[in-house]
Amino acid sequence: MNFDRANTRARGLRDESGLDGEPQGKRLPDQPATIFVVDDDPVLRDSIVDLIGSVGLRVETFSSACDLFLRADLTRPGVVLSDVRMPEMSGLDLLHRIKRQFPAIPVILITGHGDTATAVRAFKAGVFDFIEKPFGDEDLLQTVRRAVVRNLIDGREFADRFSFRKRIDSLTPREREVLSHVVTGKLNKVIASELGVSLKTVECHRARVMAKMGVESLAELVRQMVLHPPEEDPDAFAGPGGIPELA
């Protein structure tokens, strides 16, 4: 199996999974994004900057992966476009670090020495796309556009999960205990009996849970729990009966 065939197959698998960008011609959301170009070749770096800048995207350049992590603000919306073969830290090493520290940022790798093994390692590590030199200008621009959209989508999802985690962490141990019973659909009087507390105490804790979680109904609360199960234990708040399925 040659490199081109492996690369094409890997892209096809990702497309089928629904994880790859937007259809061609669809406008990007009106939100600023930065393309972080990492390459130790100043000539190629400058040509990529001119190309990407020509379509109105903001570009920042770096001579190495170490330079990127030293100077770039990777908490902003953006995409990393990096060469594979670089001194100090390779593009694959850069990819692994980005996925650990900034998982919402798509990474596009460029190589002049494409091989199947490198492509497979890159896609397994979560690369957005793997491009072999020489590449067409429009091909690169389309890939960058799709990566920008992917970043905006993933960024919102990570922000939602972070916000949910903060709300959960704001609950007291007793409120979390009440929550674990509430989301199973138990009545307040049943919860009070099982916890050995008064009905009024359960009602107070339930009201605080609803306020802290920013919801007005049980359906909203259950939906949040289903969409954002705790990473360390998805059933931590489910109770004996589990979280009921949403219609």
The count of β-strands is 5
Instruction: Give the SSE string.
Output: HEHEHEHEHEHHHHH
CATH class of the largest domain: Alpha Beta
Question: What structural class do you assign from the helix and strand content?
Answer: alpha/beta
Largest sheet composition: 5 strands, parallel
CATH architecture of the largest domain: 3-Layer(aba) Sandwich
Strand order of the largest sheet: 2-1-3-4-5
Description:
By secondary structure, the chain is an alpha/beta fold. It has two domains: about 5-160, Response regulator (Rossmann fold, 3-Layer(aba) Sandwich); about 170-225, Arc Repressor Mutant, subunit A. It has helices at about 5-15, 40-55, 65-70, 90-100, 115-125, 135-170, 175-180, 190-195, 200-215, 220-225, and strands spanning about 35-40, 60, 80-85, 105-110, 130. A five-stranded parallel sheet has the order 2-1-3-4-5, with helices on both faces. The chain starts with a helix and ends in a 20-residue tail after the last helix.
Question: Could you list some keywords that capture this structure?
Answer:
247 residues; disordered N terminus; Arc Repressor Mutant, subunit A; 10 helices; alpha/beta
